[in-house]
Request: fold
Amino acid sequence: MAIFLNEDSKIIVQGMTGSEGMKHTKRMLASGSKIVGGVNPRKAGEKVDVDGVQIPVFGTVAEAIAETGADVSVIFVPPAFAKSAVIEAIDAEIPLAVVITEGIPVHDSTVFWAHAQGKKTRIVGPNCPGLISPGKSNAGIIPADITKAGKIGLVSKSGTLTYQMMYELRDLGFSSAVGIGGDPVIGTTHIDALQAFQDDPETAAIVMIGEIGGDAEERAAAYIKEHITKPVVGYVAGFTAPEGKTMGHAGAIVSGSSGTAQAKKEALEAVGVKVGKTPSETAKLMREIVEAL
Reply:
């Protein structure tokens, strides 16, 4: 089984006709995803040839859902227009909105996050690589050919570390990998993904990748202690980060001792999560767990 995304998922792409949207629509199609439409008000009614597949373009998300039965939207809209694009997806009640766009103002993310509360739409992102259920579907920019289907679940703040972990454990394979993004305000959290993997009968063990800044990993540790019975292995990016420096992701702001890699590592280890000092060491820890299952 997969979390949030499966072989029946019908995907639309907001911003499909832009260069990034088109490039990754091709990649998603090539990996077996069902792309059923694009959304661009200026090109509504047109059909776009994507590697021989004719994909219709709709004026709104609501129209796309009505015509195609879409249940996932992948959003490649530029930062200035991303807020309205996400709000449109929420108002159309699409079950899953995957916000790939980087550089969305935090205030805008806060607005659409607040707008989603109590509604039917799960947001993944923003500033994330999306999610993949290998061999089934791929919504976002994660390379589809670096791993296979398997029993490991992966949730990660970092895109590149998502890819590295998938590659390091490619012989074991993944049920799903979810890149949640590293911005200060995100939709789906480590905790949401951990619970989904806990509930998924085909996920046997979980890798959780965090990074310095904020307290998401400490909160995840507290949640693991109370609710997660499957083995979890962790990695926290930023052990060698100079103190007081703001790192690449907007979320990676350290305040005092909280938010450091060491503090996060200690919080996770206190609840029985094995934490690697490098991605390769983390993969080795997961390999040992899977072999013992």
Remarks:
- The chain has a mean pLDDT of 94.
- The longest helix spans residues 279-292.
- Residues 10-124 form a domain with the Rossmann fold fold (CATH 3.40.50.720).
- The chain has two domains: 10-124, 146-292.
